[in-house]
Every structure is written in C-alpha cells, then in structure tokens.
Amino acid sequence: MIEIKGFSETSLLDWPGKLCSVLFLPFCNFRCPYCHNHPLVFHPEQYATVLLEDILARLHSLRTWIDGVCLTGGEPTLHTDLPLLVREIKQHRFLVKLDTNGSNPQMLENLIEGGEIDFVSMDVKAPLDPFRYSRSTGLPIKLKPILESIEILKRGRVEHEFRMTVVPGLHQEEDIRMLGDQLRSGQRFVLQNFNPENPLDSSLKNTVPYDPKVLKKMERMVQEMT
Ligand code: SF4
User: Of all protein residues, whose CA lies closest to atom 5 belonging to ligand 1?
Assistant: First the structure.
C-alpha cells in the first residue's frame, strides 16, 4: 500500500465549500520550478509514514466535522495502488477528492467510471502548447495525457475544477486568457498565487507574486470565459 507521508486533520482550503482532512502522498513526475512541496517529491523518506489504520481511526472521530478526505501530493496517480486507498476510504463512508496534475488519464478515467471519487482538482500549468507547458513543469512532457485528462473532466461525470499557480515571469495575463479559452466549459477555473517561500528553483525566491487584486481580476476574467 502507498506510504502516506502526511495527514492534516482539517482544512477549509483544499475542497471548495467543504471541510476535509488531507492525506499527502509522495513523489511526482513533474519538476515545476515553483513547487513548494519538493521535499515530498524528492525526499519523502524524511517524513514518517502515517499508518492508514491510525488515519481511519482519527477520521471516524472527526466524522461529525469533516465532509471528506482530499488526496494530494506530490502526484497521487503515480501510485498504482491509489484505487485501493480510495476504495478503503470510501468503504468507511467518506467522500474523496483527488488532486492531480493530469498525467495519468487512464487512472483518472477508471476512478471516475467506478464512481470512486467525488471531486477532482486538476492543476493546469500553462497554455496547452508543448513549449510553454514544459517550461512550467520543468521538464519536457507530452501534452497528450494532459489533454485527455482535461477532456475526461469536461465530460462532467464528476465535479471538478482546474487550478493554476500563477508565477510572474512564467505566466503573463495573456497566458491565463489563452488557457481560459482552451479550458472553456470546464466547471471552475481558479488561480493560485505563487508562494516564493521555498520554491524548487531557488532563483524564484526573489520573484514577487502578483498583487492579489490583480490576480483576482484575472480570475474573474477566466471564470467568465469557462
Ligand atoms: S507543483 Fe509540480 S512538481 Fe510540485 S507536486 Fe505539483 S505537479 Fe509535482
């Protein structure tokens, strides 16, 4: 079974409109220069593994408070036994949200088809062209699986959102507009501000995030589009 490397009992930020617990899963196949979860991506061994049985016991004691469980990473779909973990949580009658970078459309499709997940938040990194996407993910990647995941979500069989971390220098307003246009008919498109505290690429520490008001304006613009 997957080694769970972190457990946050309650979060109001990870599932729109819900209070959830969050499980952190290790490793990722992307290398986004702005990633602030990189210790979990590169060195998960520095975190103690949290036993699923302990988590389930705690979830039961939180049952009257929480609406569900968010699985995040790293990239959860890298783990071939993720569906087992999802099933185990569902058997205990908790809703499940999945955070993903969209690189494993087959697993996403299977989880949706099986009715096993209740919400998906897919990170989109840049306008959907190979150069810009690879620049934002920090390595050359094929766009095909990303496009497939987007199409799977846009079919609307599961509640979902697209989410983008906006980094000055990497993303201009025009990029966000272009991506909003490409994602048209998705349910929700939210923008997150870049956090310069501990990025994978340390040169980004000096990058000043967008003014929140400017970011909000951009978000309103793309939400109207999608
Ligand atoms: S920000 Fe990028 S590298 Fe970091 S966990 Fe997410 S997809 Fe992986």
Answer: 74
